[in-house]
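Q&A log
Question type: sequence-to-structure
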Amino acid sequence: MPRTRKIIIDTDPGQDDAVAILTALASDTLDVLGITAVAGNVPLALTERNSRMICELAGRADIRVFAGCDRPLRRQLVTAEEVHGRTGLDGPDLPPPGMPLQSQHAVDFIIDTIRGEAEGEVTICALGPLTNLAAAIERDRTILSRIREIVLMGGAYFEAGNVTPAAEFNIYVDPHAAAIVFACGAPVTVMPLDVTHKALTSPERIEAFRSIGNPVGDAVAKLTAFFERFDVEKYGIGGAPLHDPCVIAYLLQPELFSGRSVNVEIETSSELTMGMTVADWWRVTDRKPNAMFMNDIDDTGYFSLLTRKLALF
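Response status: OK
Response body:
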């Protein structure tokens, strides 16, 4: 049995965030210490609510959910209801959550948890804008030497941007937070659009979720069917990129992914390219590598992993 990895999921659900959280909760090698919500795909009041709804769908009302930052560090909040729907989880008809929201602020929870666990124990799984994590780093930099790894979904190099010509949504929403995280010195692994745009839903893959035959599989089929309509129309392709579960899949089956260690800088001054992840893929500068930047995925293996895990509920 592989050693259990302790994780904090920092998230802004989002249909693809939901699939990521459910996959993590189904995995006995991942110990979810807590879920921290941040404003992103939809405002904070919805992301913290959605996080609790997902936990209850999984039968895991024991998971602690914390509300974090309701706006980026230095910019106005940009949301994505046009992609995710008014609630962020449009698709299935999920009941409102009964489990409580924790009273502690998410940033304090992140700091206290990293300090309270053994050094090198906690992995941060960042599925949305990096505001909560950056705020924790700014408040207490001593946590950096104690983090095992930061695995995040965000950015792009070969695929450019999906919210502006230069920027991916999560990084664009709070580029100043992303700059703090990429410069922090802790191990960072990135799942950019270069990976996620190769991990597309399809009618067959959605039907595989539905055919699981449990409430989670049915909900995920409805979530992904709703989610894909936007990208099918936008890109003219047969499915939608299932972005955020790549973070969890990497922890469970890292051999599904390949990339290289490079320097990544975040653009924070030019409005034209705000939020761009400037990845030195070809190592043309002398800037020190600060991230493992993935660029390929075994998409068949990826969807097989997700389906197997969701069938465990």
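Response note: Residues 215-235 form the longest helix (21 residues).
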